[in-house]
Structure formats: structure tokens, C-alpha cells
Amino acid sequence: MKEFFERNKIFIAVIIAGVIIAAAVLIVGRGEVNKRPGEGEEAEPSACLATDNTIVTKVIDGDTIVVEGGYSVRLLGMDTDEAGYPCYNSAKTRLEELVLNKEVRLEKDQTDTDQYKRCLRSVFVGDMNVGLEMVKEGLAVARFYEPDVKYKDEIVAAEKNAIDNKLGCKWSGQGQTAAVPAGESAFANLTKEKTGLDVIFACNAGNYYAKEAIVEGRIASASRSKTNTVFLNFEKAYPNQCFSAVIFSSDQYKFVASPENYYNGKNVRVRGLIKEYQGKPEIIVNNPSQIEVGK
Predict the structure, then answer these.
(1) Active-site residue, 282 included
(2) Pairing relation of β-strands 141-142 and 78-79?
(3) Is the pTM of this model over 0.70?
(4) Catalytic: 82?
(5) Is residue 241 within 8 Å of residue 219, measured between CB atoms?
(6) Which DSSP string do the residues of 209-225 spell out, in sequence order?
(7) Class of residue 183 by CB neighbours under 10 A (exposed 0-12, middle 13-18, buried 19+)
(8) Is 214 in contact with 227 (CB distance < 8 Å)?
(9) CB-based contact 156:142 (threshold 8 Å)
(10) Which member of 94, 118, 224, 271 is catalytic?
(11) Which domains does the chain have, with CATH numbers?
(12) Annotated catalytic residue, options 3, 41, 68, 74
């Protein structure tokens, strides 16, 4: 046996190396795959178990409720401010008035649940579409993602009317600028006073396509794609982000090292032309002067 190994040690070494390489390839193949914006594979969401007719037991915020059985429901077709921003309390309070402890009807569109395993539904109290009502009153913005667009025409029209008539917290002026989180001072450079540009909350950016503005929000997730493009996702993690700042690889030498790590979790302002990419607003950031962190 010893003589066999001595005579064939090169051949055996080649076989062992091949096994190691194959195992490494298999492990990498099962690892995280970068996507735009590089967040990786996500677990398949579970089915929604909430019944169509149910009682609302809790209101999480202006666009998310909990119903009997403890099931979370995200209202379709609209979006409200996150905690710490101007219209958060107004939206949450109004939603409580509309649905808390009341019987509601949950209506599915095409998608059953989101990545957080929340049921995706239009919510009705009697004949009233609650999401539509929130947008109509100027407490929420219209927000649609394919293929769930059943009530898009009505909700978009309600939003336009609310904007035109400056209704509610979102459009009366109170919620148009982003709030500076507690403990952070005002930004030094990217301000309306210094630039002449409006400062808008990240989740309102979709209303400013083709306009130059300053967008503020907290970086909820940040990533680097296969092409080394960095994506800074505002307020909500990909793919539910309100807005993204994009730094292409060709410009990254101008910025801090690993901007996806440096900016993640921080309150940030970015300046630039707001464009649409796959239904979401974004600004291409090609110079460090376009981005500032709240101190």
C-alpha cells in the first residue's frame, strides 16, 4: 500500500485538489448573489394567513396594521412617513381613527406577501378604501409596484388633488422638508439657504422626477453590485427603498473608502437631478460635494 501511494502520489494529489476546488465552487454557488442593488437572495415569503374579513387589533404606523391572529398587513398603493419624520404621527393617528378595533375587509391584488412576510392588501371599512382615503386627505403618498396596481388610477388622482389643494400634512408645507433626527445638528452645506434647492424627504422624492433637489433620509441598507456600483437605499431596505443614491465604480476614487459601509445607518442628504429607475427615484452621485452626513 505504501509503495502504491509513493508511485501515485502526484495523481492522488491532483484528485484531492480537484475535490477541494469543487467543494469551494459549490459553497460559493450557494452563497450570496449580488443583485441590483446587491442585497442578495431572500427567503421565500410565507403565505398570508389573515382572513378576508377581520378585526384590526393594532396600528403599527401610517401604512401597516395588525389584525386578528397577529398577522401584519401592509396597505397597498400608498406610503407614509417613517418614525422621526414630519407626518409620521399624523398618519398613524388618522389610520387608528379609521380602522383600529373595527372590522375590515382585506382585498388581495396579485402579490400575497412581502419580504417581511406581511400580507399585502387593500383595506376596506365598509365601502371605503382606507389607503385611498389616507392619500385623499394628504397624509400619504401614492406608491405602486408592479403587478399590484388595481387602484392606481383612483389613488394617483387623489394624490394630485391633495397636492393641488395643499391638503394634509404632506402637502400643506409641514411635511415637505425632512426633519433632522434628534441629537443631530443641521447640515452645513446642503441646505436651501446655500443652494437655493428644496430639501425633501426621501419618501417624497418620487414626486420630483426631472427636478434638481436635495433629498434627505436615513440609509436603511447599502450594497455593492457585481459591477462595483454602490447603492445607498433610503428609509427602507432594498427592494422597498423610498429612494437610492447611486455611486458608479468610475467615480468611487473621489469618495471615502467603502462608501457602502461609511454611509450605512446614517442620516444623509444628497443633491442632484432626481431620475426614475425601475419605478424608483434615484440620484446619480458622481462628486463628494453632492452628499453630506448629518453631524
Answers:
(1) no
(2) antiparallel
(3) no
(4) yes
(5) no
(6) TT-EEEEEEEEEEEEE-
(7) exposed
(8) no
(9) yes
(10) 118
(11) 53-171 (2.40.50.90), 192-293 (2.40.50.140)
(12) 74
Task: Give the alpha-carbon dihedral of 45, 142, 173, 281, to 10 degrees.
Answer: 70
* Catalytic pick among 39, 82, 133, 260: 82
The contacts of residue 105 (CB under 8 Å, 6+ apart) are 52, 53, 123, 124, 125
- Reading the block at residue 144, the C-alpha cell is 405602486
Cα(285)–Cα(267) distance, rounded to whole angstroms?
16
Active-site residue, 121 included: no
Give which of 233, 217, 215, 236 is closest to 225, Cα–Cα.
233
**How many whole angstroms separate alpha carbon 167 and alpha carbon 174?**
10
Distance CA 117, CA 115 (A): 5
Q: Taking the CB of residue 85, how many other CB atoms lie within 10 A of it? A: 23
Going residue by residue through the chain, which has 295 residues, state the pLDDT in tens, using 9 for 90 and above: 555 545 555 655 656 666 566 555 444 443 333 344 444 444 445 799 999 999 999 999 999 999 999 999 999 999 888 777 788 899 999 999 999 999 999 999 999 998 889 999 999 999 999 999 999 999 998 988 889 999 999 999 999 999 889 999 988 876 554 444 433 346 889 998 999 999 998 988 988 999 999 999 899 999 999 999 999 999 888 988 999 999 999 999 999 999 999 999 999 999 999 999 988 999 999 999 999 998 7
- Residue whose grid cell is 402637502: 171
Which single residue is written with the C-alpha cell 458622481?
A: 286
